[in-house]
Amino acid sequence: MPLTKFIRKASGKVGDSPGTMLFVGKNTTEKVRISLIDYTEKDFEEKEIKDIKEIFPFRQKPSVTWINVDGLHETKIIEEIGKHFESHPLILEDIVDTNQRPKLEDFESYLFLVLKMISYEIKGNGMNIEQISLILGDNFVVSFQETSGDLFDSVRDRIRASKGKIRKMGTDYLAYALIDAIVDGYFLVLEKVGEEIEVLEEKIMVSPEPEELNTIYRLKHNLIFLRRAVWPLREVINAMQRGESKLIKKTTAVFLRDVYDHTIQVIDTVETFRDMVSGLLEVYLSSISNKMNEVMKVLTIIATIFIPLTFIAGVYGMNFKYMPELETPWAYPLLWVIMISVGFSMFLFFRRKKWL
Questions:
Q1: DSSP for 248-271?
Q2: Minimal CA–CA distance to 58: which of 137, 140, 138?
Q3: Of 57, 58, 130, 346, which one's alpha carbon is 20 to 30 angstroms from that of 49?
């Protein structure tokens, strides 16, 4: 995963005025999809939005309205939704710039949150990070996602079936439920990362290969990106539960504290995995070094055995005329016996010293 993917691509925005909407993210040809869920404790309505004007009447309703937008590349749609909900131009600029850091901004009449939703595949490209932006108002929550597909199906099911407290609570509880779903997704990612680390550790201990080194570096990069997504989120949740916004009720702050604890647990696990991966790199390098030392030791012993044999062969390979042994009938087989005896004696000596 290239590091440049997570570096702010500001070259196309140089010289533009603040609030200029320029989409920064993955290019896609998919159409923007807008869905709406409106509910009270007793009533429920869900629909797909074909025309943006369909959401305008829900702005004044006393019920809780959740508008979800999949796709940020059509900036005119984002701008029109933002104007209807009286969002600041800088907020709209941040929504379409998918390289934002997780953060919370309080505009009194509404809150703006940026989060990172993460999925992970052991086989394939590894970690996929998607930006989620939330606008939390007194009777509405608008969520913006880069692409279709998310971790919010459990929240939708709870709203449809009226399970738990979600239909009895307000928009702040809905925002908590969405944040909680994202944080729960981090645990799924960590579970897969932990499994990959265990498998990798076994491979390295048995027989380290160059492919394992590539996997180690990929895991290190993924954990860095995961850390970048989780660490700021801790500050966001802490600010929500300790802030003075009238949009966050005390009853919801209790649940936010629970999410905060989960975030701390995720951070601790990420740090543990980073240490483990760093340790795996050291184990890999040590294993390769030990393997090389074993090879060099065998080669050195072989060379050492052949030194006296080479000496004997060199002596009798000289072309002197008067060499008494050359005329002896048993000189040649006797020389072989001597050379084999010397080599075997050295071999036994090395085995006794446990060098072999």
A1: S-HHHHHHHHHHHHHHHHHHHHHH
A2: 140
A3: 130
Nearest to 171 by CA among 115, 109, 233: 109
Closest CA to 247 of 115, 136, 142: 136
**169-223 per-position pLDDT tens digit:** 999 999 999 999 999 999 999 999 999 899 888 888 877 788 888 888 888 888 8
Residue 158 amino acid letter: R
- Considering the domain architecture, whether residues 283 and 305 belong to the same structural domain is answered as no
* 297 and 201 in a common domain: no
Model pLDDT for residues 314-333, shown as the tens digit of each residue: 888 887 777 777 778 888 88
What would you report as the CA-atom Rg of the chain, rounded to the nearest whole angstrom? 34
CB 291 within 8 A of CB 208: yes
Strand (E) or helix (H) holding 342: helix 331-352
Paired with 104 in beta bridges are 113
Percent of the chain with pLDDT strictly greater than 90: 37
For the sheet containing 33-39, what is the strand order? 44-49, 33-39, 64-70, 140-145, 127-136, 111-120, 103-106
Q: Which of 140, 143, 142 is nearest to 151 (CA)?
A: 143
Domain span at residue 335? 292-352
327-328-332 Cα angle (round to 5): 100
How far, in Å, CA of 256 to CA of 240, rounded? 8
d(CA 234, CA 205): 36
Mean pLDDT of the chain: 86
Give CA–CA dist 256/135, Å, rounded.
Answer: 17
The whole-angstrom distance between residue 288's C-alpha and the CA centroid of its chain comes to 27
8 Å CB contact between 32 and 69: yes
Q: How many domains does the chain have?
A: 2
The model's pTM is 0.80
pLDDT tens, position by position, 226-260? 898 889 999 999 998 887 788 999 889 999 999 99
281 shares a domain with 345: no
In the DSSP assignment, the letter for residue 15 is T
